[in-house]
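Handout, page 2. Input:
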Amino acid sequence: MPELDVAGVNDVTLDGRTLSVATDDAGRAAPDVIRALDDAGHAIADLDVRRASLEDVFVGMTRTADAEVSQ
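Output:
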């Protein structure tokens, strides 16, 4: 999996040929992510920027809460 040392990147997930990058602000981070992948020799076939859904936020928050309770 490519290492992304880009400000604002919170998580990088590789699923087959799909690389998902979670950021604080996709508008600001996208050019730096594209540049970092290009510099590392990775070709980008398609780029999709989307906002987190309410379900995404809920799942993320409940996972964090579950982890804190487990400790």
